[in-house]
């Protein structure tokens, strides 16, 4: 029996030209060697001009571009789309929901829209929801993952004295990815076999906090972003192993039958720790964080975009995303059709 969900096409969007580590070092006087050793990202794209501080792209801009590309590749018109799901940790505003701004930009009207606010696992959470929405009345959906870090780039200060800005500049990035999901089998599509989406680590302290401020909060001394890098480095590989084992069990696959691994896309040494923890042999890893930057919920769609060019009929893949803010493990099993 054919599965109920198929990835028909993908689309991606990046703002402007890539910004390499040397360009950041020249602009802000930061140390390239130490940043590369700690973060490991070679280049990234920003939705802001680093020289002028002017915002060049909104989340709506990038999300609409990625969706438009995915729709064009699937030969779809706006009237063909039955629902739209967005996963992001950085919407343009609390209201209106960015997913509705994207739909409006694309000319998609009279459809169900959903916006999930989540960190690294948001893309697979959105995919999970989209798979559940497919039915006899909802045959085609758009799934989007996108993030921008504009709100946390303080460009008029010395980054040596503002640690988070330096980390954002070297480690993070902006972008959007999308996929067309259909209930009917399309030649060349990727079948979604099972999706794992579980909140875990009950009572464990969050590994990451990103705060949103209102007018009454401006005088408070809280940092907008906090990360426990040690906890992330320790817990993400373990949760990735759990996610791999659980999603393979749900699908009825053996680990040895997997041809491709799309691991969690976190900067620094975490990807290598994940690979060591999983202990996979003869598996092709598909990663992009070193060249795209940590664009959050966009990255799983960039990985899917790369997978579409490689996976053959009956080949199998597993994608894993771990959310360190309140420890969510997500994974999906995929098969070439």
UniProtKB/TrEMBL annotation:
One of its GO terms (molecular function) is 3-oxoacyl-[acyl-carrier-protein] synthase activity. InterPro entries: ACP_syn_III_N, Thiolase-like. Signal peptide: none annotated. Transmembrane segments: none annotated. Gene3D superfamilies: 3.40.47.10. One of its GO terms (biological process) is secondary metabolite biosynthetic process. Residues 116-184 form the Beta-ketoacyl-[acyl-carrier-protein] synthase III N-terminal domain. This is 3-oxoacyl-ACP synthase. It comes from Kibdelosporangium aridum.
